[in-house]
Amino acid sequence: MSEPTTSRTVTVTINGTMVEREVATSKLLVHFLRDDLDLTGTHIGCDTGNCGACTVQVGGEAVKSCMMLAVQADGLDVTTVEGLAGDSGVLTPLQRSFGEHHALQCGYCTPGMLMSATALLEHTPHPTEDEVKVALQGNICRCTGYWNIVEAVVAAGKSGSA
Ligand code: FES
Ligand code: FES
User: Fold this and answer.
1) Does residue 105 line the site of ligand 2, with CB under 6 A?
2) Which member of 2, 77, 87, 101 has the greatest number of CB atoms within 10 A?
3) Residue 69: which pLDDT band, with cuts at 50, 70 and 90?
4) For ligand 1, what atom is nearest to the CA of residue 52?
5) Cα 60 to ligand 1 centre (Å)
């Protein structure tokens, strides 16, 4: 006999918009974002907390959303990669820097990289290479060799904003 699914109503502010949903207490935040809210910019690479493709910001901190239940985000602000450019659609300096420095190839890791790097730049506006490497150590990229990503983040810091 299968266990009954329990659910709870959660209220989360996603990319500046408050949403209220009934959600299974066992549902991961990444599945809530992708399946319930259609925010598919947040990727799933491993589902085990290793790759960082699912990184979002929760309460201003970079969080791997496959390591957190949706109900744990109740009452909190969540920002996904879709929220970086905002309603205007104008890319952030960091997003532009990724393009300018060829910091993506297939792009699978890119949302997670951007979210981790954005959190870094909010806390440390002008990071050194070493600080960028530490901040991105939980994000795996199988394409770029990482150097262009580090360069893009350092350059965004030098330009003065995320
Ligand atoms: S999908 Fe979350 S860390 Fe890989
Ligand atoms: S650009 Fe392909 S995994 Fe990073």
Assistant:
1) yes
2) 101
3) very high
4) 3
5) 19
pLDDT 10s digits, 8-55: 999 999 999 999 999 999 999 999 999 999 999 999 999 999 999 999
Q: Which helix (H) or strand (E) holds 21?
A: strand 17-24
Please enumerate in sequence order all residues whose Cβ is within 8 A of that of 90, keeping only pairs 6 or more positions apart, or say none.
none
Question: Can you give the residue range of the structural domain that contains 130?
Answer: 93-159
- The number of domains in the chain is 2
Q: Per the domain annotation, does 2 fall within a domain?
A: no
Q: Is the pLDDT of residue 129 over 90?
A: yes
Q: Do 71 and 101 belong to one domain?
A: no
Cα 74 to middle of ligand 2, angstroms? 31
Residues with CB under 6 Å of ligand 1 are 44-47, 49-54, 64, 66
> pTM for this structure?
0.94
